[in-house]
Amino acid sequence: MPVTVILGTQWGDEGKGKAIDTFAGGYDYVARYNGGNNAGHTIVNEYGTFKIHLVPSGIFYPKAKCLIGGGVVIDPAVLIDEMNSLREAGVKLENRLLISPRSHVIMPYHKVLDGLYEEAKGAGATGTTRRGIGPTYADKFSYNGLRWSDFSDAELFEGKLKLQMDLKNKIISALGGEPLDFETVRDDALRCYAEIKPFVTELFPIVRDGLKARKKFLLEQAMGTCLDPDWGTYPFVTASTTLASAATGGLGIPPREITRVIGVTKAYTTRVGAGPMPTEIQPEAPNTSELDRRAALAFREVGATTGRARRAGWFDAELTRFAVEVNGVARLFLTKLDVLSELDEIKICTGYELDGKRVHYYDIDSYALGRVRPIYKTVRGWKHDIRGIRKYASLPLRAQAYVETIEKLAGAPVGWVTNGPEREAVIVKK
Ligand code: GDP
Ligand code: IMO
Ligand code: MG
Predict the structure, then answer these.
(1) Please, which of 69, 115, 129, 375 could form a disulfide with 38 given CB 3.0 to 4.6 Å?
(2) 21 Cα: distance to centroid of ligand 3 (angstroms)
(3) Residues 6 or more apart whose Cβ sits within 8 Å of residue 163
(4) Mean pLDDT throughout 246-269?
């Protein structure tokens, strides 16, 4: 499959890092196409446990070249830290990590503005990662951004930065923030650029020639389908397009080259930040059932980027079905089945009802989505520790039935099931 896209079908954190790590060994190029260091992709392999924010998750396979495409936004200090921790673990980066000069740079004022906008919005805040993502993309699309290519000409860079800092400091002051010092921002940025510069190179000829030579490309999404600015739960979304249809733009790959889309889906649902989540369990609410409470306990997770607790709930087939349809998902990569092992019963949301009528995810906006009543199907749990099982047929029959219910409801076959964070914990389902 020359060009494969791997994407999340929920609100992020589906286990994309693990999915990429499963497949990357068979690819020549692994490329990140969207987002920035709001992403946190966990990889557990022989090098250790990594929470990767910017470098493509294929970096652990020495033969894979890793591309950071023009659609990605980069915080220079975060990238340098990540590169250093990879080097310390023995991962070679030279001639393997290649960064588009078209990718935009997250500047300190973007992070300050992210925080100030969130605070100004109060209860209506998005719950961003405060990594400056929204303000950096806003600058890109309002022709105010700084790209790596701008750094190569000191005079051009200084002029652009001065103009932006004059503008941004006015906004920062008006919102009650501390204006930033131009010289400090400039010097820090140039110091980082000196370290990153050897990795910045135009990707177009590499990609074009690779496609011609039928080299294999794995395109790695950050975030998830329901955080997409068009098709996600706006305004509780992220600032970059997350869909398969966007994977090729910033990388300069013609869309017709995409041959396969794999949808990573958690066996339950999580979300970080604000916004509607129909199957969310409120463990503290007085009328929460014992089953729901136990599930919330089992589903508990901590965010890989911000360390915030992830909101958790039952699997939402309405959401994943939409993600399958809008992205053209051919196969699902179903993660974290082991987490359900202790539950007596498991609930699956098959659809929504709003004011007594069936509605679909795409029929309604975020505010109505916050009011829907999930319709649940309840199935018996398998009550058996499934970690360590490596064959689909060896899974308890009720676990197999759960997987098969998900594929029927979501409208795409499950190709892989995972039952542990480590590299080996992947079961191929024929
Ligand atoms: P990503 O952002 O989509 O790459 O996902 P994250 O890394 O943010 O979150 C997924 C979490 O689930 C990480 O802590 C993974 O190590 C963990 N994980 C992935 N697959 C499995 C699995 O099958 N079982 C268990 N127990 N954990 C898993
Ligand atoms: P990975 O790639 C989960 C969420 C934030 C917030 C919203 C906007 O690890 O799946 P932003 O900082 O992007 O402006 O925040 O998007 N968000 C994520 N949630 N996983 C992610 O990435 C996310 N990246 C952003 O929590 O709700
Ligand atoms: Mg994550």
Answers:
(1) 129
(2) 14
(3) none
(4) 96
Over range 58-85, report the average pLDDT. Answer: 97
Beginning with the edge strand found earlier in the chain, give each strand of the sheet holding 29-32 in spatial order.
Answer: 97-99, 65-68, 29-32, 217-220, 3-8, 260-266, 331-335, 414-418, 426-428
111 Cβ neighbours under 8 A, 6+ residues apart: 75, 130, 131, 132, 135
Q: From the CA of 39, how far away is ligand 2's center (Å)?
A: 6
* Residues 385 and 341 sit within 8 Å (Cβ to Cβ): yes
Is the per-residue pLDDT at 423 higher than 90?
A: yes
Dihedral sign for Cα atoms in the order 159, 161, 165, 168: positive
The predicted pLDDT at position 111 comes to: 98
Contact 410, 332 (CB under 8 A): yes
Q: Is the pLDDT of residue 248 over 80?
A: yes
Pairing of strands 311-313, 260-266: unpaired
CA-CA distance, 98 to 158, in Å (whole number)? 25
407 lines ligand 2 (CB under 6 A): no
**Active-site annotation holds for 110:** no
Q: Which atom of ligand 2 is nearest to the CA of 38?
A: 24
Q: What does the pLDDT look like over 139-153, one tens digit per residue?
A: 999 999 999 999 999
C-alpha distances (whole Å) from 5 to each of 134, 188, 237, 247 are 24, 35, 20, 7
CA of 141 to the centre of ligand 1 (A): 32
Q: How many A from CA of 321 to the centre of ligand 3?
A: 21
**Torsion sign (Cα): 312, 314, 319, 323:** positive
Please work out whether the CB of residue 227 comes within 6 Å of at least one atom of ligand 2: yes
* Cβ(42) – ligand 1 distance below 6 Å: yes
Is residue 41 annotated as part of the catalytic site, yes or no? yes
> How confident is the model at residue 1, as a pLDDT?
66
Contacts of 169 by beta carbon, 8 Å cutoff, 6+ apart: 109, 179, 180
Cα-Cα-Cα-Cα dihedral sign, residues 364, 370, 376, 381: positive
Give the confidence band of 182 by pLDDT, cuts at 50, 70, 90.
very high
Residue nearest to atom 25 of ligand 2 (CA): 38
Q: Nearest ligand to the C-alpha of residue 223?
A: 2
Structure tokens at 285: 């609410």
Q: Across the chain, what does the average pLDDT equal?
A: 97
* C-alpha Rg value of the chain to the nearest Å: 22
State the pLDDT confidence band at 171, using cuts at 50, 70 and 90.
Answer: very high
Question: What pLDDT does residue 303 have?
Answer: 87
- Look at the chain and count its residues: 430
